[in-house]
Amino acid sequence: MLDDYDLLAESPDETHTVLLVEDVAPLREMIEHALSAAGCTVLIAAGGEEAVQAASAHPGPIDILVTDLVMPGMSGAELAQELVRRRPDMQVLFISGMPDPGTSDLCETDPRFHSLPKPFGLSQLVNRLREICENRPPRATWPDGPAG
After folding, report:
1. How many domains does the chain have?
2. Are 83 and 43 spatial neighbours (Cβ–Cβ below 8 Å)?
3. What string of DSSP letters covers 49-98?
4. What are the phi and psi torsion angles at 120 (to 5°)?
5. CATH number for the domain that contains residue 105
6. Does residue 91 sit within a domain?
7. What is the pLDDT of residues 79-128, one digit of tens each?
8. What is the pTM of this model?
């Protein structure tokens, strides 16, 4: 996973606020460092409950949730669905080494949900995150439709 730190320092056109949820501390710290180096504002949580609290406490928008799928307590999929319900404009990027058919279905039916299988390079993660944030789908394409 350690790769291309020089590429991460490239300045993006726009900064993004990321809620990073990963229960493995060294991995969480490595990803946080990479996202910060790429110009992102990073909110971190070690699990689902902590992430819900962080999202509730953050006064501004959160562009994207980057979450592991398999964590103690609340799964990444449960967390994502809860946070998207509260913050419908938020995108989601699942990072996991474990395939999950339910998450695959979610990614296919809702354009706000995306996945990146582990292992991945840090520059690959940053590039995928930028791609998702810069190509936000129109609200009319979401399963719950436009805001009423």
Report:
1. 1
2. no
3. HHHHHHHHH--S---EEEEES--SSS-HHHHHHHHHHH-TT-EEEEEESS
4. -140, 160
5. 3.40.50.2300
6. yes
7. 999 999 999 999 999 998 876 666 777 777 788 999 998 899 999 999 99
8. 0.84
